[in-house]
Amino acid sequence: MMLAGCSGDRSILDPAGPAARDVAWLWWAMLSGFGLVFVAVVVAWLAAFRPRAHVERSPAEERRFSLRWILGGGIVLPGVSILALLVFGVPTGQRMLPVTLPGETPPQVIEVVGHQWWWEIRYPGEQGDVVTANHLVMPAGEPVEFHVTSADVIHAFWVPRLGGKIDMLPGRTNRIRLEADEPGVFGAQCAEFCGVQHTHMHLHVEALPREEYEVWLDARRSPLPEDEAHAQARQDFIQHCAGCHRVAGLSDGERGPDLSDIGSRATLGAGVMAMEEGAIARWLATHQSLKPGNRMPSHDDLEDETLERLGAWLENLTP
């Protein structure tokens, strides 16, 4: 049980990027320092109970003896410990700051917006922004600059295997630079309590080789083809969902997650359930019981046939 946190897609002890390695090294250094202090305190505690002859001291000697313990244990030891943490910790944090030196190529920028309780991901580009939700794709083997903010309350962006967390504040954009050593899939989590469904605010992060990343972006810039087989579902969507949700070329709703590529995502509800056949229809029918308090209203007024039709069409949205 003690080793359960040493691996997995959210373990800081299994780093997959340079920033995460710095954080992990700092963690091990702090643990080692804590271990030494703990052993020293236990030894001193046991020594205090050791039988010994009573020592007579004058009041002046007692004051000097007490002063040594106060200065050593109350000032010198904490001062040295804090200084050591600053010496090792500050450079670790600075290496995650988005600093581009003269002559360097600016890194890829990805914007992340926190909502209660889902993630909006934006990829700015000259051909227009690509927008997704709860599924972040980044190029591997190069630094990526994340610009993070919040649409409502304080959230925090944290991909444990890639680096430290950074707060997402309404009305403010914070920046952090992270890098994945190689292609892979990583778990991310909101790391600041943001409401009753905070624990169900997961983010699926995927690092791809640069060529595959560009193909992924281009696919989402292309208009979705007309699908006559789901014509009625499209009309249902326009009538019941378009005011809140965007589907490229069909609607521009911004209150809820963008659904233009929902069929290609790994999960629904920011990690509440896996994407599989029939999952979207089940989510539409039972989302308030699966994730109570989310801002999408119940669909009690819609027939099961309509929800199944919508779900089948949305599952087909895979650029």
From TrEMBL:
Domain Cytochrome c positions: 228-318
Keyword Cytoplasm among record annotations: no
Keywords: Copper, Electron transport, Heme, Iron, Membrane, Metal-binding, Respiratory chain, Transmembrane, Transmembrane helix, Transport
A Pfam family annotated for this UniProt entry: Cytochrom_C
KW Transport (keyword) present: yes
Subcellular location: Membrane
GO biological process, one term: ATP synthesis coupled electron transport
A GO cellular-component term linked to this record: membrane
Transmembrane annotation, as ranges: 25-48, 69-90
Cross-referenced InterPro entries: CcO_II, CcO_II-like_C, Copper_CuA, Cupredoxin, CuRO_CcO_Caa3_II, Cyt_c-like_dom, Cyt_c-like_dom_sf, Cyt_c_oxidase_su2
Cross-referenced Gene3D superfamilies: Cupredoxins - blue copper proteins
Catalytic activity: 4 Fe(II)-[cytochrome c] + O2 + 8 H(+)(in) = 4 Fe(III)-[cytochrome c] + 2 H2O + 4 H(+)(out)
Cytochrome oxidase subunit II copper A binding domain segment(s): 105-219
GO function terms (MF aspect): copper ion binding; cytochrome-c oxidase activity; heme binding; oxidoreductase activity
Topology versus the membrane: Multi-pass membrane protein
NCBIfam families recorded: CoxB (TIGR02866)
Function, as annotated: Subunits I and II form the functional core of the enzyme complex. Electrons originating in cytochrome c are transferred via heme a and Cu(A) to the binuclear center formed by heme a3 and Cu(B).
Family of this protein: Belongs to the cytochrome c oxidase subunit 2 family.
Protein name: Cytochrome aa3 subunit 2
